[in-house]
Amino acid sequence: MKAEILSLLRETENYISGQELCERFQVTRTAVWKVINGLKKEGYEIEAVQNRGYRLVSQPDMFGKAELESRIRTKWAGRHIAFYESVGSTNAAAKLLAEEDAPAGTLVVAESQTAGRGRRGRGWVSPPGHNLYFTLLLRPEIDPDKASMLTLVMALAVKEAVEEAYGAQAGIKWPNDIVLNSKKVTGILTEMSLQGEYIQHVVIGVGINVKKQEFAPELAEKATSLEAELGHPISRALLLEKVMERFEEDYALFLEKQDLSLLLAAYNAALVNCDRQVKVLDPAGEYVGTARGINEKGELLVLDSGNKLKKIYAGEVSVRGIYGYV
Ligand code: BTN
Predict the structure, then answer these.
(1) CA dist list (Å): 54 to 5, 42, 51
(2) Which of 203, 206, 210 to mutate to test the pocket of ligand 1 (most atoms within 8 A of CB)?
């Protein structure tokens, strides 16, 4: 009821009467008053005027379960939320929930992580108050070979969400880093659990650097945050709401063809590596070539120095710009 009341307050410019809220939720005036009081304690400024009702005067940059539930109005993505003030890793928590039969679309969100996981066995530093750390649980009925493409679907959804919420043009560094001004603002880690030959679940974990912050010296050169680059405040709740909306749409397009063909044009338009020289860090030997975009499987097409078009699969190989990260 808390999330619904919050959502109604947000949607209504004028006052909502206590009576209306009582009738809508079939509860007493005291119960409504308690919810309003709880919201006030959390920082929402709500005016209560006799004979008129309640009005949301201001909503500071709130971030919590009720705020997210009141915003996310998708069909399934993010409609069940597990929110933690602190958790080891939202990916690990999502996997546990998946084992307990949590439905597809369950969204695990944390204010901070104590054991955030990055790609290639690295960690993901996750202090409170600054960033977004979340994991979406999926149960796709697709061939396990195709699951790695989901990371690219999420990358595109995050890029589109930043644009929709704030009008900013972020880019994608293949396969799944979101970049602004050539620096990384988002990392994505997808993990899959199989039962025999079938996918039991997939968890897609996303870390977005939101507020201005100091990065460790080894990251400072290539990491940044949305606020540092865009120069204005960013609401984590609004951004997450938009990511869920965009992902739900893009995922439907992915499932329709079981590949990225319907998302290819949008992804390639965002690809910062496109038509640029890249260094391919192939375990079998590094080489330099020109990136030509991805194909429908999410492989990066690179024209090598001998004019041979190579297809690079993200699991094995990573790419860098020849002068740096992008
Ligand atoms: C990368 O190395 O670029 C991927 C980083 C992914 C970090 C996110 S934060 C939320 C989710 N939970 C984790 O433990 N990792 C991912």
Answers:
(1) 10, 16, 10
(2) 206
